[in-house]
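User: Need the bound-state model for nicotinamide-adenine-dinucleotide:
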Amino acid sequence: MEKIRVGIVGHGFMGHEHEKMLSGMEEYQIIGISDIDPKQLEDVPEGIKRYTSDEELFADPEIDVVLIVANNNQHHDLVIQAAKAGKDIICEKPVAMNVAELDDMVRVTDECGVKFTVHHQRRLDLDFRTMKAVYDAGSLGDVYTVKSSLYGFNGNMHDWHVFVSEGGGMLFDWGVHLLDQMLWMMPGAKITSVFADVRNVINTEVDDYFKILMRFDNGVTGEVELGTYFLTDKISEKWFERHWIMGGNKGTAYLDGFDPQGKIVRTSHLLTNVRGTRTMTAAGPTRSFGPPAEGTILTEDLPKATTKHEDYFKNYYKAYHGEEEFLVKIPETRRVLALMEAVRESAKTGTSIPFEK
Ligand SMILES: NC(=O)c1ccc[n+]([C@@H]2O[C@H](COP(=O)([O-])OP(=O)(O)OC[C@H]3O[C@@H](n4cnc5c(N)ncnc54)[C@H](O)[C@@H]3O)[C@@H](O)[C@H]2O)c1
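Assistant: Bound-state model below.
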């Protein structure tokens, strides 16, 4: 098998992840790694070249594809330099700081005739793929709501992610994944309007909380919520919670965790009007919110997803050789950036913003 020869630009947290992943795949050979901080190159494994300047890496004729894994504010310039050196490019998310930057990058990659895509491997996450399979199967009937949430319970934000100038903030860091998943789940649906709340709860410069509501023209309201300062004392062993809920008129699907646990839940017959049974609660008697009559709630297992992050690079290899389409297409990433701009506008003005209509 002819290997794709890769150069990695940026050997921090994610650069190391890519190094490990690609080193274990027969389709790839890592030729070299660059970083502006020489300390980050100290643990580059033997047999892989180290470059203290990106220019050296871009000029290396042994490299076919560069993987841009530097801070978000570096992506624009690095992609353009790589394209001008004739390299094909995979760029980390968020591909750019805004739509204008991306358009500039696309102009240059097109002029240089190089392949350009983005590392959105969270399209392969098991929790997301499970919910997408539920949506695609149509078994919940008319879906009216899809909620995707992620909460961190320790208040952590780290390194350059707390600086605006570096492309920090949770909207850029995780929002880009959560929005990309929501849009890619329902690729044919247009967003008619967006309402968002984006906050700097404890960070002075960058957002660490957001709630985003998107009205789609297929009848779904998509909701994405994330907070890094959502404290709780109910921790068992993990310091985050990941949840999905999808509601349709023929059932509900819920899912918890990246290692997905959940069910599809239905009622044995439609319960639009049943004889009220009085249940006493601490807040007084209730009929609507009491327990269901025995046998009315039915559960089904969620579909089983089997995707893994490695599949991103398996697809890349085939697409590189014209055997498949790239999993991530640049117009899709542009749509997410445009949506994030509408999100910020909505949060600033406190109004809902028309989008794609
Ligand atoms: N897809 C994912 O799941 C995922 C996860 C984490 C990070 N990322 C992305 O990866 C990128 C890097 O994030 P990270 O968490 O690894 O950050 P990091 O700070 O751990 O690493 C970034 C590295 O890039 C280096 N660097 C900065 N500018 C450079 C330049 N011009 N040339 C060469 N090296 C440069 C830094 O010295 C550092 O070693 C970001 O775009 C981030 O959004 C993606």
